[in-house]
Amino acid sequence: MTAPASQVRVSGVRFTHGSEADRRAGLLGWLRVRYGALELDGLALRRSGDGRFLVTFPSRRDSAGREHPLVRPLDYASRRDLEAQILRGIEDARRRPA
Q: How far, CA to CA in Å, does 49 sit from each of 3, 7, 54, 64, 86?
C-alpha cells in the first residue's frame, strides 16, 4: 500500500538552469529532488504557453518512437501535489541567503 501523496514530502530541491536556447523553447532547467526515500533526477521545469510553470518527468523512446515514462505520478492529484511541493522548494531555495 502506498501513502497518499500529501503524506510524502519533497525536500532537497536542486535546480540547474537550462541553456539560453532551452529557455527560449520553454525549458527553464533541470530538477533533482528527494521525495520520501527516493531521489528523482532529470525532472524538467518548463513554462507553458500561457505562462504556468510545469514539472515534466523523464522518459525514453523505443525504436518505434513510443514514449515510456521512467518515473511518473499515477494520478492527477499526485501530480499536482508533487508539482506544488517542488515549486515551493524552488522558491524557498531562492529566498535562502547564498
A: 33, 31, 11, 29, 20
The band of 4, judged by pLDDT with boundaries at 50, 70 and 90, is: low
Rg (CA), the chain: 14
- What residues have CB less than 8 Å from 56, skipping those under 6 apart? 43, 44, 46
pLDDT, one tens digit per residue, over 41-54 is: 999 999 988 989 99
